[in-house]
Backbone:
């Protein structure tokens, strides 16, 4: 993995959320999901900025949804993971797990 | 229904990129609706506004439609620049030839431009220069043409000031000479009576004192140079100097002010400025009325006064002036602005400003432009040739959809890049190399400076466009023309067989031959004039000017007792110093002739070479039978078959010719005046003006020092005015040398440029024919044969260029030489031979390496197809 494909912390969080929302991911729903799971209060504009960045990096796909009665008939932009988005998540998860597993048990024994 | 704040909605619509507006608006409204339910309307409205503000980021902001296009072309241009730099570094040899050649020529152009610019803008630094005019007289010559005279009636200035309100001030300049004495220092000086307005209206800087000094009639203002000469380290202010005018009036003045060094662009440079009020008192003119002409009258006009209108008011004075002096009838006045004075100086008789004739400037300008053209053609040729390597790139780009203009623009960019580098390098070369070099042969120093910032901008923009268009446009258009099909098929080849490039090379070489041949002819002529035999032996001769009999007798006494004096005689004239021109008559013939009078030993002392007869006899001072020796010129001009014993006459005096000597150089600026018939007659003691010493060999300087010391005792109030005959020509010889240097240098640049051009073209030609040479070699060609094949076409260009350039150069320089020098060197083949040798040598030196490379080509390297 080259340096340019490195994921930031917020980027990784949003990428994960998009994956977990499974085709229902758009600005507000992503914001809500993060609030619900991690308690982080993000501004929706920050979510939009990261989404756009991830899309240009090629980790996300997007499309406009159909018009509904909500939000004055304005359409939503939905996001989903691309294959490379999935693989970059896999990679980052796997090295986190590897590192996590390397933590010796002894460290926990101090905390009883 | 609760609505979000109006301004926030409008603001969002205003800044937001329309492509993103829908999703962003959607999310904000969704949150807004939810917050109304959860936290109430006012909270929701505040958060709505906050969200709108937070969304206002660079990435969401609307761009103008042209933005994308512009950024595209910026990317394109930076791309071109990068490719350009890569090409420069990849072909560093040709690029550096290109850039260096152009930079050399531009360095010359910049240097000469600064020089010409300075001369065109003399005196403009005076803040009121536009309102200051010199009033000049127009007088009809004998030949019917109007000539302009700087002199004007001394009464004109004050009359104008009294009667014409438009004239704010006037100042006059009256030139005189006097012996100036301060303590033991006595020199003969040029000094000027000026009105106080001279310093009020001109912006000369002061080292000490101020412009009011001239209002005190006992004060003088001196220049920086005079302060150094007379006072060295002392403070001159308040010191007394005594002036002895030529009518023997003596007056003592106090130094009131010292001017700063004159700026390089000052044309009126006075050394002593004496208040005009003294002029009448000193009484050098019998009567100061309209008949007395002073050297210059300047008038300072009110802002906005039309000089022509003002002049028409002055016409009434023509009659007044002419009634006072019917011998000197003027027809018109003219007002010449101070701004133009030095440029028009050459057409004014007896001017107060010093400046050179414009022909020199024009010649230099033409040379500079020629050199630049030479370099541009050089550039064009090499630039076209070097594109050979990039034919496939051009073709590929065309196939990919680029059109001709796109390719032309790319090549234009690359070429202009090199032109810019060359201009910068040219500035550096000019600043560090040419300008100091040029200054070292000039009598003054020019700073690296333009007359104004606008001139500078216009100049550099001008050369950028001129050089850029000439040298870049053609190559770009030329290479962008090719069809991809013919390139890929290998049909298109250029550079080697291009007639146009041959013509350009031919032109370069022709110009080079012109400059080299004319340069050598000029240098040959200058050397000839420099080495012209003086016709006498100036070694160990010291001539001292004496003012009266008693001084001469005192020096005679001194000479009798001084061990270093071999001989001492008197003379009323002396070579390089003093001689008269008279009409000499023999039978019906009447010729203008130089006449020198001296003691009878003069001719012997100067070691004139006797052809026949004898020198004049020392005892004969009989009025009725005066003896004279004449030069060869006079013999031939008077058609004397047997000159000895013939009698010639000047007015009523009759002289008998007793000897004929070889021509001798009685004048100083040998080259500029023709040598006239000359005679040396015997003059009585009473008329001696010079004491001429011949020292024992090698002691001349010691003798000079002791005569000087002795002089300050016998004549403390007269300057020690002497010439060491050997050094009399120094300035003349130096001017000849600097002429040789300048012209030699220009020829050198032309040769270098032409060599670079030939080298560049040849090396490309060889490069593209390496395979051909390899095949020839395999088939048995010798080194010499390959060299012949490689250089044959250029050989013919050189020959043709020589036969065009050499006669043209000869013709041009001959015109110039004949118009400047009346006695040029006799025609000779030497300069031609030297010029040819130099050209052949430099040209072959520049290409020999490339030819050997062609000859030593390794067939395996070039023919292997892998």
Residues:
């Amino acid at each position: 993995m080259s340096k340019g494909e490195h994921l930031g912390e917020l980027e990784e969080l949003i990428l994960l959320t998009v994956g977990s929302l499974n085709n229902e991911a758009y600005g507000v729903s992503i914001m809500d999901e993060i609030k619900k799971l991690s308690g982080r209060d993000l501004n929706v504009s920050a979510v939009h900025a990261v989404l756009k960045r991830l899309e240009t990096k090629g980790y996300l796909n997007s499309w406009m949804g159909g018009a509904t009665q909500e939000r004055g008939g304005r359409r939503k932009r939905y996001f989903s993971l691309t294959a490379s988005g999935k693989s970059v998540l896999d990679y980052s998860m796997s090295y986190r797990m590897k590192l996590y597993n390397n933590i010796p048990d002894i460290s926990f024994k101090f905390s009883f | 229904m609760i609505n979000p704040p109006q301004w926030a909605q409008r603001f969002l619509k205003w800044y937001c990129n329309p492509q993103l507006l829908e999703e962003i608006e959607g999310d904000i409204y969704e949150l807004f609706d939810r917050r109304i339910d959860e936290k109430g309307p006012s909270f929701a409205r505040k958060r709505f506004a906050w969200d709108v503000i937070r969304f206002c980021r660079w990435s969401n902001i609307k761009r103008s439609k042209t933005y994308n296009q512009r950024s595209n072309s910026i990317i394109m241009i930076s791309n071109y620049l990068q490719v350009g730099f890569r090409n420069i570094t990849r072909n560093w040899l040709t690029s550096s030839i290109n850039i260096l050649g152009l930079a050399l020529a531009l360095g010359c152009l910049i240097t000469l431009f600064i020089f010409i610019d300075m001369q065109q803008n003399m005196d403009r630094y005076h803040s009121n220069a536009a309102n200051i005019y010199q009033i000049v007289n127009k007088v009809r010559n004998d030949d019917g043409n109007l000539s302009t005279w700087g002199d004007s009636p001394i009464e004109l200035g004050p009359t104008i000031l009294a009667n014409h309100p438009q004239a704010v001030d006037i100042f006059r300049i009256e030139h005189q000479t006097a012996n100036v004495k301060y303590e033991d220092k006595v020199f003969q000086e040029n000094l000027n009576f000026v009105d106080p307005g001279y310093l009020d209206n001109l912006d000369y800087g002061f080292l000490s004192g101020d412009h009011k000094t001239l209002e005190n009639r006992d004060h003088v203002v001196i220049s920086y140079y005079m302060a150094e000469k007379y006072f060295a380290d002392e403070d001159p202010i308040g010191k007394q100097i005594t002036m002895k005018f030529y009518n023997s009036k003596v007056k003592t003045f106090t130094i009131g002010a010292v001017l700063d060094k004159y700026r390089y662009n000052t044309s009126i440079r006075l050394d002593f400025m004496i208040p005009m009020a003294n002029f009448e008192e000193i009484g050098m003119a019998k009567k100061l009325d309209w008949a007395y002409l002073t050297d210059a009258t300047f008038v300072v006009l009110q802002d906005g006064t039309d000089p022509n209108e003002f002049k028409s008011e002055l016409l009434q004075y023509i009659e007044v002036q002419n009634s006072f002096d019917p011998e000197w009838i003027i027809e018109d006045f003219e007002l010449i602005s101070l701004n133009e004075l030095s440029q028009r100086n050459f057409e004014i008789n007896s001017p107060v400003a010093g400046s050179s004739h414009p022909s020199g400037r024009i010649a230099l300008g033409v040379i500079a432009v020629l050199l630049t053209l030479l370099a541009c053609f050089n550039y064009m040729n090499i630039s076209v040739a070097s594109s050979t390597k990039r034919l496939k790139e051009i073709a590929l780009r065309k196939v990919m959809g680029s059109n001709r203009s796109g390719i032309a623009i790319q090549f234009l960019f690359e070429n202009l890049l090199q032109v810019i580098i060359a201009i910068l390098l040219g500035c550096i070369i000019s600043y560090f190399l040419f300008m100091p070099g040029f200054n070292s042969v000039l009598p003054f120093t020019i700073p690296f400076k333009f007359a104004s910032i606008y001139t500078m901008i216009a100049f550099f923009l001008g050369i950028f466009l001129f050089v850029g268009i000439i040298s870049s446009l053609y190559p770009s258009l030329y290479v962008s023309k090719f069809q991809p099909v013919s390139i890929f098929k290998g049909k298109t080849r250029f550079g080697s067989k291009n007639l146009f490039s041959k013509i350009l090379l031919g032109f370069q070489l022709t110009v080079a031959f012109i400059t080299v041949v004319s340069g050598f002819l000029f240098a040959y002529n200058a050397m000839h004039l420099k080495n012209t035999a003086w016709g006498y032996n100036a070694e160990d001769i010291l001539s001292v000017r004496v003012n009266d009999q008693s001084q001469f007798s005192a020096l005679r006494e001194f000479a009798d007792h001084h061990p270093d004096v071999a001989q001492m005689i008197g003379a009323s004239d002396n070579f390089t110093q003093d001689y008269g021109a008279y009409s000499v008559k023999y039978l019906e013939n009447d010729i203008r002739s130089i006449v020198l009078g001296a003691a009878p030993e003069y001719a012997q002392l100067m070691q004139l070479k006797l052809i026949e007869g004898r020198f004049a006899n020392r005892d004969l001072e009989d009025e009725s039978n005066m003896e004279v020796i004449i030069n060869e010129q006079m013999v031939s001009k008077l058609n004397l078959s047997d000159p000895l014993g013939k009698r010639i006459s000047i007015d009523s005096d009759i002289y008998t010719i007793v000897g004929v000597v070889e021509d001798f150089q009685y004048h100083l600026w040998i080259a500029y005046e023709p040598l006239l018939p000359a005679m040396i007659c015997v003059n009585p003691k009473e008329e001696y003006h010079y004491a001429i010493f011949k020292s024992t060999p090698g002691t001349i300087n010691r003798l000079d020092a002791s005569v000087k010391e002795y002089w300050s005792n016998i004549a403390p109030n007269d300057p020690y005015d002497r010439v060491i005959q050997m050094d009399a020509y120094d300035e003349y010889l130096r001017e000849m040398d600097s002429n040789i240097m300048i012209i030699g240098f220009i020829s050198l640049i032309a040769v270098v440029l032409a060599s670079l051009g030939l080298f560049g073209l040849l090396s490309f030609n060889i490069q593209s024919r390496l395979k051909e040479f390899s095949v020839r070699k395999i088939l048995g060609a010798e080194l010499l044969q390959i060299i012949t094949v490689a250089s044959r076409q250029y050989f013919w260009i050189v020959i043709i260029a020589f036969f065009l350039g050499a006669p043209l150069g000869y013709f041009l320089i001959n015109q110039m030489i004949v118009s400047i020098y009346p006695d040029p060197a006799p025609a000779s083949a030497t300069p031609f031979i030297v010029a040819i040798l130099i050209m052949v040598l430099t040209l072959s030196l520049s290409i020999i390496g490339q030819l050997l490379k062609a000859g030593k080509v390794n067939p395996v390297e070039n023919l292997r197809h892998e």
